[in-house]
Amino acid sequence: MESQFQFDWQAAINSIPFLIKGIPYTLLISFGGLVIGFVLGIIFGLLSINKKWFFKWPATAYIEVFRGTPILVQVLFIFYGLPDLIGGPIDPLTAGIAAIALNSGAYISEVVRGGVQSIDRGQTEAGLSLGLSRTQTFWSVVWPQAFRRMIPPLGNQAIVSIKDTSLFSVIGVGELVRQGQVYIANTFTAFEVYFVVAVLYLAITLSLSLVLRLIERRGLASV
Amino acid sequence: MTQIVKMKGMNKYFGKLHVLRDIDLTVEQGEVVVVIGASGSGKSTLIRCANGLEEFESGRVEVHGHALSPKGGNQQALTAIRKEVGMVFQQFNLFPHLTVKQNIMLAPKKVKNTPKTVANATAERLLDRVGIGSQADKYPSHLSGGQQQRVAIARALAMEPGLMLFDEPTSALDPEMIGEVLDVMRELAKEGMTMMVVTHEMGFAREVADRVIYIHEGQIVEQGKPDDVFDNPRNERTQAFLSRVLVR
């Protein structure tokens, strides 16, 4: 049977104003979550390379649990499961941000660990031999170099997390995909609308890639 | 004379490997002690024990009057010693994210709270002294190996150390750059800096050292004035080592 399908450009264009309303939520959840995730990543990444077991083990457990379970399960657990525990509802936006934060935090922990461990021991020895304390050596010598190496994988994680927010349509956050679903329910133009949704995601991630490339270039220019 | 370094019955293990055995060693103020020995003999480990970059398992180590405890105890002494002891590494270990001048200013600013203008002036003076004043605002990766090592020396000197440790400072350099680094070290020695130098540069050792120490399998088997050690080694291990490195 030959398909009678024709891409309806008008329907695609008409959907844009409605779909765009989802972008602030997509950005809020992803960047809000990533900022918290970055803080978690620094804390747990550094704890995971600590020699003392009571720092290292809990950090490793956190990383393994949140890397080893699907983010969809995590957000469902937070949104539907946690209210039973805390005795009150959690709004979908908070649940979404929390899921991105905890999930990206686990991956960023590994990025931080890898970045810090990639810095030659000689750098630490040079810092210590100059009389800097361990803390001063870490933050003035090791961290700035490690952070520079962390930029590409951090950018990668940001892009992954932005796309992960699409899963949160299941808990009813009005982000991009959710907006698309609502719009399609009224217009039945699934092909066009999901096409526009995809293009909008691509616009976000490509802009981010561009910014990251500029940052990388500036960072590397000085070394 | 003041003894800057006092080691007494010091032993050091890497796991089961006994890398330093009953080390007794003193270094007087203004003395240049050159440590020689085959690779793996423990000579680098020995000088790294003098600023606590390596822990030792038993014995006594005292530097500038601060006594280090075995197994890295006594953090206070460690901190005090590191402020007074400079170190130059085989691989330079300059901070690649900082300019040459920032490399030199970092420790005075952070450790001694030296005002920026003072630290800046000191850095410029030291860079002139090691002959690379014009490179102050470059990053280390834009410098040759010899220049980088001279920056590393200036960086250590910025803390006004009473003792300088050199851990094979010319071993990673191209042959044509070894001379410029040794020149700076020679100047330092002339100015009366107390120095412990691990090196394979036997010509430098003979010329600059007040005392040469030969280490074999973690033990000091011979020490004395360079002419005595090089021309009339008493220990047969020293003789064997020197015949390998001096005959070309």
Automatic annotation (TrEMBL), chain A:
Residue ranges annotated as transmembrane are 25-49, 61-82, 193-215
Highest taxon in the source lineage:
Bacteria
UniProt entry keywords in alphabetical sequence: Amino-acid transport, Cell membrane, Membrane, Transmembrane, Transmembrane helix, Transport
Q: Does the keyword Cell membrane apply?
A: yes
Does the UniProt entry include the keyword Ribosomal protein? Answer: no
In terms of PROSITE patterns, this protein maps to:
ABC_TM1 (PS50928)
Q: Where's the ABC transmembrane type-1 domain?
A: 23-212
According to its UniProt record, where is this protein located?
Cell inner membrane; Cell membrane
UniProt record similarity statement: Belongs to the binding-protein-dependent transport system permease family. HisMQ subfamily.
User: Which protein are we looking at?
Assistant: Putative glutamine transport system permease protein GlnP
**What species is this protein from?**
Marinobacter adhaerens
